[in-house]
Amino acid sequence: MTAEPPRGQGALPAIAPDRRADAAAAAVLRALAATIEASIPGAISGADPEHLHQLRVALRRTRTVARQLAGVFEPSSLPGFRADLRWLQRATGPARDLDVYVGQLDSLLELVPAGDRAALQGLAPALERRRLRARAALTEALTSSRTSQLLADWEAMLESLVAAPTLERPDALLAIGDLAARRVRRCYERVIRPGRRLGPSSPAADYHELRKRAKELRYMLELFGPVLPASVVDALVGPLRALQDVLGRHQDREVQIALLRSLADELARTPGGGTACLVMGILCARLEADAARARERFAKRLSVLASRSQRRLVASLLGG
Fold first, then answer.
1. For the packed helices 273-305 and 78-109, what is the interaxial angle rounded to 10 degrees?
2. Residue after which a domain boundary falls, among 170, 194, 225
3. CA dist., res. 49 & res. 123, Å (int)
4. Are 21 and 175 in contact, with CB atoms under 8 Å apart?
């Protein structure tokens, strides 16, 4: 089993392990930039939520490469690009979240007794109103001059990257296979070490931070897997996906609970609002229990990824 791009992502360029790291990074980032630009019209129309999803995945992967391969870029150029990419990621988040919530509403309602579901009939229109506001904000961000300037400046920087002086770019001339191996090993350790400190009572924010780190590792394996030892990639991908599944489940439940609580006042003002709030309390309790089950499963999933054999493989084949 090898790492593959998410469904809908454009094809990644073929890269040889001995290619210059800056040239390899630029090639990968240009492919991601093409996905971002191609996804914007569909993200604005909203006809298929997959366009917005693919836009956000490409943005996250772009930010991962800029962070993990920072040494191939001129240091003066990165802070501004990072700030703008982070802004665009955040600007697209609420609309995507609400697309998912609306799509999952029926399955959420199945968590409460059948006889109580009618009390939450006001939940769907409340979510839809929020989604419309979020999509209006999304459209404003995606059609803004800030976005168009970001994409133009980013493309220009990538086109000129290889020709730029290397004095302040210490990793530019390294072989991408060596640099990617070093960074994947670092990403792996940044998941395992803090992950071992997490327990059932750890703050939700700590689980969320680990989820972001696991995503970075996954993206590095997806983007640069072809220049890494196949045995390492194949060994890591399965356990990493299993870990991400449980971390994603936990995060989804935490966010769903927060959203439901934020809607309580609005539903309380509707006919039957008191009953609706009581049933929402039941739903939140069920979601909290499911989040707790995800925490209980976390340690077992991490132990597979952090096993002695996995650590030896990563250390020996990625420069340990």
1. 120
2. 170
3. 20
4. yes
Strand partners, 20: 175
Phi, psi of 285 (to 5 degrees): -65, -40
The pLDDT assigned to 6 comes to 41
CATH number at residue 283: 1.40.20.10
Among candidate residues 109, 143, 170, the one where a domain is terminated: 170
Report yes or no: 320 and 185 within 8 Å, Cβ to Cβ: yes
Ranges of beta strands (E only) in the chain are: none
Asked if residue 2 belongs to a domain, the reply is no
CA distance 88 to 120: 33
Tokens representing 15 are 């890269």
Q: What is the mean pLDDT of residues 107-115?
A: 94
Q: Which two tokens stand for residue 165?
A: 């002086």
Question: Does residue 314 share a domain with residue 214?
Answer: yes
The reply to whether 39 and 154 lie within a common domain is yes
Same domain for 179 and 151: no
Q: Which helix (H) or strand (E) holds 93?
A: helix 78-109
Calculate the average pLDDT of the chain.
93
Residue pointed to by tokens 């990257």: 161
Domain, as residue range, for 77: 17-170
pLDDT at residue 205 greater than cutoff 70: yes
Q: What is the DSSP letter of 16?
A: -
Number of domains the chain contains: 2
pLDDT, one tens digit per residue, over 30-81 is 999 999 999 999 999 999 999 999 999 999 999 999 999 999 999 999 999 9
Return the exposure string of 306-317: e unless at least 16 CB atoms fall within 10 Å of the residue's CB, then b. Answer: beeebeebbeeb
Both structure tokens of 52: 């917005």
Residue 200 phi/psi, 5-degree rounding, is: -55, -25
pLDDT score recorded for residue 5:
40
For residue 319, pLDDT beyond 90: no
